[in-house]
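Please fill in the sequence for the structure shown.

STRUCTURE ENCODING:
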């Protein structure tokens, strides 16, 4: 009996806490390293701070799914948790997420929950926000007392994520809760501290767990932009850095019988990215399918562009100059209405006024041209976008040429096309511009690499080829098209970066892609549901399910290039307004 009693007291619950995940680089580290960490340390429950996981600010439903798919069981938050406004409902409904408990009544979500480990042990998780130098919140000390009154009856093992600014406040809460919770771990400052210990009452404590993401940075963000912000005191767009990727975490061993911590261990695990990629490429080259390609989603880089546009729009508004975009359509094409709505919403979110100009189907080219010229002469309108296709008999090319080049935010006017070709300032078509910005955001190596562009349209193929071969990208570019013949597939296999913009569903299959290449899918096609009753499914020019096992990185459809196209329209509108504002002042 005595031996059995001693054995029960020594049964441990292993809790792994992942420090603040910073954007897609942080999620990449998590996907690569978490499964092995859980296996090696026999982890029973994985908790992850997610408040910076979507483009460095906030959380979205898709990003949360990525974190859960990577192996996280519970997500905790902080002061940036609600930065993505469209995710507020999700945050309130997700049962695996714990937001700060000491926020006002009515805040979406719950500040404490009980979860089961993979061995059936109940674990309470509490998230708390500091008050010193942070947003207004209730007292974390008294809130913790109140929460423990309820939670202590449901679980002996209790973990606290204290998201706070100052060391003193974190240390104080650790002492306040010593002996009443299993662990108090601080987050928010993104620098892992070396004060890990088990306090006398049996509570494991660490001031800050650090961060998971790019350490060649300023606390996870691009260091050049952060430095400019400190040096100039001007608004600066910050985006997650992806150099020197590492995972910071904390492993806490808890006696599940008493709820007391036995040990706490800091972890800092680097991601050997290039070595991992080379190993994977070798396996793929030998015909094996290992892990899937890195997903280059458009939401994060689009959000970064939108933030930049919002800051610049605010500066214009402060000067009494409100940017305005006219969205012109002819007819009621369903797809066009969806695109126009998205562009209008994105502009409004960035502080751009939007004027919808809906012209009935059957309107002549002359009448549409007259209306566009009126907008061109209106000084309050800084950008004009004509949504193609136009309902007959209106001629799209004639209408596009009626837009003044300095208001042509879609970049389709012949003058802007010519300026791009010879390297002069002008407006670049939104989709090619978005493709380049997406590749740059994810720090895809471009200089000296070979890009193959499939498609030669003036909307995507030719301008994206020009951009990739220009200074700043410095790629060698080949354009392939429908007249390239049977050699087109072999040409595609030579690409380090393959851009598919041919307008043919799933034309690019696995045997078109060189192992390890980066694939950007610009195509978009609607495929009816299998039973013909559900919503149509969107797919691209690339056979995604096959190619993802060959490429090193790939854009999805939907959710890849599409969000970037909308974001670049927003940015082009701001640029147009800035130039016209400068002309007025001159």
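FILLED IN BY: designer on duty
SEQUENCE:
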């Amino acid at each position: 009996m005595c031996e059995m009693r001693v054995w029960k007291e020594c049964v441990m619950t292993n809790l792994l806490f992942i420090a603040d995940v910073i954007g897609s680089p942080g999620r990449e580290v998590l996907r690569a390293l978490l499964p092995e960490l859980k296996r090696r340390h026999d982890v029973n429950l994985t908790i992850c701070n997610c408040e910076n996981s979507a483009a460095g600010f906030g959380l979205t439903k898709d990003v949360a799914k990525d974190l859960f798919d990577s192996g996280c069981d519970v997500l905790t938050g902080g002061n940036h948790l609600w930065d993505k406004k469209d995710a507020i409902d999700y945050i309130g409904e997700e049962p695996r997420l714990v937001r700060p408990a000491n926020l006002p009544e009515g805040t979406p979500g719950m500040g404490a929950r009980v979860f089961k480990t993979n061995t059936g042990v109940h674990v309470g998780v509490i998230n708390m926000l500091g008050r010193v130098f942070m947003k207004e919140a209730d007292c974390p000390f008294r809130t913790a007392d109140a929460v423990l009154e309820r939670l202590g009856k449901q679980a002996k093992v209790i973990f606290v994520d204290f998201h706070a600014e100052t060391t003193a406040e974190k240390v104080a809460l650790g002492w306040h809760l010593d002996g009443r919770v299993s662990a108090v771990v601080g987050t928010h400052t993104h620098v892992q501290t070396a004060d890990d210990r088990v306090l006398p009452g049996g509570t494991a404590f660490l001031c800050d767990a650090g961060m998971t993401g790019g350490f060649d940075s300023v606390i996870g963000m691009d260091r050049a932009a952060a430095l400019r912000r400190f040096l100039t005191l001007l608004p600066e767009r910050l985006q997650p850095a992806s150099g020197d990727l590492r995972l910071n975490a904390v492993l806490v061993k808890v006696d599940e019988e008493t709820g007391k911590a036995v040990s706490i261990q800091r972890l800092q695990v680097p991601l050997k990215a290039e070595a991992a990629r080379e190993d994977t490429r070798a396996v793929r080259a030998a015909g094996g399918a290992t892990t899937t390609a890195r997903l280059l989603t458009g939401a994060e880089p689009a959000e970064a562009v939108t933030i930049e546009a919002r800051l610049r729009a605010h500066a214009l508004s402060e000067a009494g100059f409100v940017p305005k975009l006219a969205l012109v359509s002819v007819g009621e094409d369903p797809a066009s209405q969806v695109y126009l709505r998205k562009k209008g919403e994105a502009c409004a979110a960035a502080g751009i006024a939007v004027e919808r100009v809906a012209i009935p189907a059957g309107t002549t080219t002359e009448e549409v041209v007259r209306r566009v010229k009126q907008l061109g002469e209106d000084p309050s309108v800084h950008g004009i976008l004509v949504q193609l296709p136009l309902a007959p008999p209106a001629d799209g090319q004639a209408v596009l040429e009626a837009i003044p080049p300095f208001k042509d935010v879609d970049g389709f006017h012949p003058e802007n096309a010519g300026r791009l070709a010879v390297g002069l300032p002008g407006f670049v078509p939104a989709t090619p511009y978005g493709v380049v910005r997406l590749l740059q955001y994810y720090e895809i190596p471009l200089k000296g690499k070979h890009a193959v562009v499939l498609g030669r349209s003036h909307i995507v193929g030719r301008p994206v080829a020009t951009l990739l071969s220009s200074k700043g990208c410095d790629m060698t570019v080949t354009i392939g098209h429908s007249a390239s013949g049977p050699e087109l597939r072999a040409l595609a296999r030579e690409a380090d970066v393959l851009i598919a913009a041919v307008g043919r569903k799933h034309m690019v299959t696995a045997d078109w892609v060189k192992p390890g290449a980066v694939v950007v899918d610009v195509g978009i096609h609607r495929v009816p549901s299998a039973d013909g009753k559900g919503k149509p499914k969107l797919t691209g020019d690339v056979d995604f399910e096959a190619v993802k096992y060959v490429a090193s990185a790939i854009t999805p459809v939907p959710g890849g290039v599409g969000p970037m196209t909308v974001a670049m329209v927003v940015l082009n509108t701001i640029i147009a307004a800035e130039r016209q504002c400068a002309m007025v002042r001159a």
